[in-house]
Specification:
12-stranded mixed β-sheet; mainly beta
Length: 272
């Protein structure tokens, strides 16, 4: 990549933080029309009741789970010199035990990070830099996620899914949406949904049947002329065996303590 110079990122699709689920909380309709469906009127966005119903079932199911693990295999596009696209790989593993346990580990082309919350404190360890940030934390997952995003601006992997699963609602605006139809993802029958916001398009594949879990995500950033994308395949365990030691972070000797830097003004969830 020497011909393109040192990668200079000026637009990056988020690595599943502020994901599609934020948009799904205010479902509208999408101009792409499934076979057999009427084309939406030009007078305004179409409201697809089927897409809304599928999203509602997904939200309710995620909130009903007392514990779960999810693995995400993702890619994101970075735009470097002269609008050249680089595709970066990201893998994320998250373990949740309600109401107050979380472990998230992410590894990709740009390093590794581990985040642990035990109901009293939170810790973030960054590799290979060997940095460790710690802070007191609120007593529930929902309150902790609020604090991390609004107070510190830290966006955890799969943030929106975690937020919805703990009962949160992220305000955003969806201009259009549609239930595209059935699709198969990694051997699982899913319903393919598509959404449009002011600055980004989202697609989500939700498992059919009694476990309406999100199985695939695609986000396209439309406010960038190169339209970079983020995509991920998700695999779930909704009856995991969880060891409490998972929520204890033991960094190697010599880890350099750094503070969580507070934002000058409270931050609100971004609206794509």
């Amino acid at each position: 990549m020497q011909a393109f110079g040192r990668p200079r990122v000026w637009a990056v699709v988020p690595s599943i933080p502020i994901l599609i689920v934020a948009a799904l909380l205010a479902v509208g309709g999408l101009s792409a029309t499934p076979a057999g469906a009427a084309a939406p009127s030009s007078a305004g966005p179409a409201i697809d009741a089927a897409a809304t119903e599928t999203v509602d079932r997904m939200k309710e199911y995620l909130r009903s789970l007392p514990a779960f693990t999810v693995h995400a295999q993702g890619t994101k596009e970075e735009i470097v010199n002269r609008d050249f696209k680089l595709q970066r790989s990201i893998e994320t593993d998250i373990t949740v035990k309600k109401p107050n346990r979380l472990r998230a580990f992410g590894v990709g082309d740009e390093g590794r990070r581990t985040f642990v919350y035990d109901g009293k404190s939170l810790a973030l360890y960054l590799e290979p830099d060997n940095y460790l940030a710690t802070a007191p934390a609120p007593p529930t997952l929902r309150e902790m996620l609020d604090a991390m995003l609004e107070r510190y601006g830290v966006e955890l992997p799969l943030l929106d899914i975690l937020y919805v699963a703990t009962g949160g609602e992220l305000g955003t605006k969806v201009l259009e949406s549609s239930d595209i139809g059935r699709s198969r993802v990694a051997g699982v029958e899913c319903e393919h949904l598509a959404f449009r916001g002011p600055k980004a398009d989202w697609q989500i594949w939700v498992e059919q049947g009694a476990r309406p879990l999100p199985r695939k995500l695609v986000i396209t950033t439309r406010d960038n002329p190169t339209a970079p994308q983020f995509s991920a395949l998700l695999s779930w365990d909704v009856s995991p065996t969880i060891d409490e030691t998972m929520f204890q972070l033991k960094p190697p000797p010599g880890a350099l303590p750094i503070p969580f830097k507070e934002l000058p003004e409270p931050r609100q969830p971004s609206k794509k």
